[in-house]
Design a protein that fits this description.
The structure holds two protein chains of two kinds. By secondary structure, chain A is mostly helical. Chain A has two domains: 2-74, Arc Repressor Mutant, subunit A; 78-221. Chain A is 73% helix and 0% strand. Chain A is elongated. Chain B is mostly helical. Chain B has a domain at 72-191: Tetracycline Repressor, domain 2. In chain B, helix 5 (72-97) crosses helix 7 (120-128) and helix 8 packs across helix 9 (157-174). The chains are: A mainly alpha, B mainly alpha. Chain A binds chain B through residues 52, 137-138, 140, 148, 168, 171-172, 174-183, 186, 189, 202-203, 205-206, 209-210, 213-215, 217-218, and chain B through 45, 47, 131-132, 142, 145, 155-156, 158-167, 170, 183, 186, 190, 193-196, 199.
């Protein structure tokens, strides 16, 4: 029991925990802290068990938060997963857009910068990367729908601003995101997140080819 | 048959199964189990398919199930492998009918799309549920895609094949019952993109 209590007091994965008792923090800040801990908890729990086998108990244990508190924030596991997904997606896409804005011209360079940012973010944290790209495939339902939407938005950031409205843009986007996700997921499954940046030339060539042709795309991709 | 003695002396009426060698019965049972698995996964998804439902659908006992498979995941993998092998044969035949590379690509993709239309349950297993039926099936899915990618002999082969499989999955999940044949021109274009290894 004593052992259990000691480990329970330890903050999960080095995250800051508020001291127990009256700490005089505004209510919203406490709430935000608990909610964030649950979001981190779901990422940890899913990394360990896979989405389908993850229980609310596993999430609350990883977050060191009571089940009762969990239900104050989320209706169910899916709700918690989606909230975490939202935060990761905003972060990933934000990083890509920021990188593209820093190198707005020429367009192939901005695509390259944007993809480099994607690979950089994902290479830092295997659990986050798996949560973002691997687990939703197994989940289905609302989670898969949200994932699909995220991938479409991501493909949108890689398209030239003045791309002619072509009828086949949707198919092109899907094949592009499928290709990008396939290459990244393979590296993640092999447990090699640190090697993700090596994929930059391939991903860049893939993204540019539909608009500039393979030869030019390859040249731009090799930088 | 008039007399009881005749009746008792008569050769037993053989059932169809008894006339066959034992291996064939077992083979039939296995096929029935795989047919049932394929149909159920298409209907309820890999996560919603139980051994109980599989044996019921196949009309065999659960003892028989365990004679063939150690568990659900192994049965899923066997169903997946069978489906992929059938697709491989159909697509392979079509590819051989073409002379030039571009003809082979287009004929192979056309055969693939035709096979998907003809057997939607099998297609669902191969493209949609393969990644939801456990790690082993997901690994086999990757192996199957890699085999196709190797044929393309293109530095982006893995990404292109992964992308096309993704496109098919999206269509099968969201596109309802409609045909997938309309994707042929675009899929062919993507494989034969100018500047690719064979372009």
């Amino acid at each position: 029991m004593a052992e259990r209590a000691r480990t329970a007091r330890k903050a999960p994965s080095g995250e800051e925990r508020l001291p127990p008792g009256r700490h005089g923090l505004p209510r919203e800040l406490v709430a935000e802290n608990q909610r964030e801990r649950l979001l981190n908890g779901v990422v940890e729990a899913v990394a360990e068990n896979g989405y389908n086998a993850t229980t609310i108990g596993a999430i609350t244990e990883a977050a060191q938060i009571s089940r009762r508190t969990f239900y104050e924030y989320f209706k169910d596991k899916e709700g918690c997963f989606l909230a975490a997904y939202e935060m990761i997606d905003t972060h990933v896409r934000g990083a890509m857009l920021t990188a593209a804005e820093r190198t707005p011209e020429p367009w192939p360079e901005s695509v390259r910068a944007s993809l480099a940012a994607l690979l950089d973010v994902l290479s830092r944290d295997l659990a986050v990367a798996r949560f973002y790209l691997v687990e939703p495939l197994a989940a289905g339902g609302e989670v898969a729908a949200r994932y699909r939407e995220a991938m479409q938005l991501l493909a949108g950031t890689l398209r030239p601003q003045d791309a002619p409205a072509r009828a086949n843009v949707e198919v092109r986007d899907q094949v592009l995101m499928g290709g990008i996700a396939t290459l990244i997921v393979r590296r993640l499954k092999a447990g090699e997140p640190a090697r993700l940046p090596e994929l930059l030339p391939e991903l860049t060539e893939l993204a540019l080819a539909p608009y500039v042709g393979r030869e030019e795309a390859r040249a731009a991709a090799r930088g | 048959m008039q007399y009881l003695s005749q009746r008792l002396a008569a050769e037993p009426v053989r059932t169809r199964d008894e006339e066959r060698p034992r291996g064939a019965i077992a083979g039939d049972q296995r096929e029935r189990l795989l047919d049932a698995t394929e149909a159920l996964i298409a209907e309820k998804g890999a996560t919603g398919t139980t051994i109980e439902a599989i044996v019921k659908e196949a009309g065999v006992s659960s003892v028989t199930f365990y004679e063939h498979f150690r568990g659900k995941d192994e049965c899923f993998v066997a169903a997946f492998e069978r489906a992929v092998e059938e697709l491989r044969v159909e697509v392979g035949e079509a590819v051989l009918s073409g002379a030039a590379w571009s003809e082979q690509v287009s004929a192979g993709l056309d055969a693939l799309l035709a096979a998907i239309d003809a057997e939607p349950a099998r297609a669902r297993l191969c493209f949609v549920e393969a990644q939801r039926g456990g790690r082993e099936m997901a690994a086999r899915y990757d192996v199957a895609l890699d085999a196709v990618a190797a044929l393309l002999d293109d530095s982006l082969g893995q990404a292109i094949v992964g992308g096309l499989a993704w496109l098919l999955r999206e269509r099968l999940e969201l596109g309802g019952e409609g045909s997938v044949r309309d994707l042929l021109p675009q899929m062919t274009d993507i494989v034969l993109a100018p500047g690719s290894a064979h372009g």
